[in-house]
Amino acid sequence: MPRRPTSGKFLVKIEKHTIDLVENVEANYVLVAIGSNRQGHTLAMQIGHSVVDPMPSLITFKIEDKHLAELSGITFPKVKAKLNVENVRRSIPEFMQGQFKDEFVTAGGVPLSEISLNTMESKIQPRLFFAGEVLNIDGITGGFNFQ
């Protein structure tokens, strides 16, 4: 994602692998908020950021059901889902904070020393912002996003 020196804008190349399409987009600001894959880390390194390697998972979820296990890694970009909340109240407590003693966010990614913590803007590349799992953050959060 190079910057055009004359305009100061980012030139973002977008490739869609499902069809033969390459599109170039100019942007004044770019937000990198990609988690769960290495794309955000790769982009950060191309711009000059260092990246802390992700840590292995503290908790591995075992799925005994063969049909569900086969779905691992599949994403559904534009799926609409409807939640039936009839029995939710009874089942949620087993997944709430404290179930695994300490809940963590994923560690590994762009070091916090390379971004402004007030604005989340890159200290290396102006007008580039980072958020989410692309950052190297580790700590007790009480959430569902385990390290």
From TrEMBL:
<dbReference type="InterPro" id="IPR004792">
    <property type="entry name" value="BaiN-like"/>
</dbReference>
<feature type="domain" description="RsdA/BaiN/AoA(So)-like Rossmann fold-like">
    <location>
        <begin position="23"/>
        <end position="147"/>
    </location>
</feature>
<dbReference type="Pfam" id="PF03486">
    <property type="entry name" value="HI0933_like"/>
</dbReference>
<dbReference type="InterPro" id="IPR057661">
    <property type="entry name" value="RsdA/BaiN/AoA(So)_Rossmann"/>
</dbReference>
<dbReference type="InterPro" id="IPR036188">
    <property type="entry name" value="FAD/NAD-bd_sf"/>
</dbReference>
<protein>
    <recommendedName>
        <fullName>RsdA/BaiN/AoA(So)-like Rossmann fold-like domain-containing protein</fullName>
    </recommendedName>
</protein>
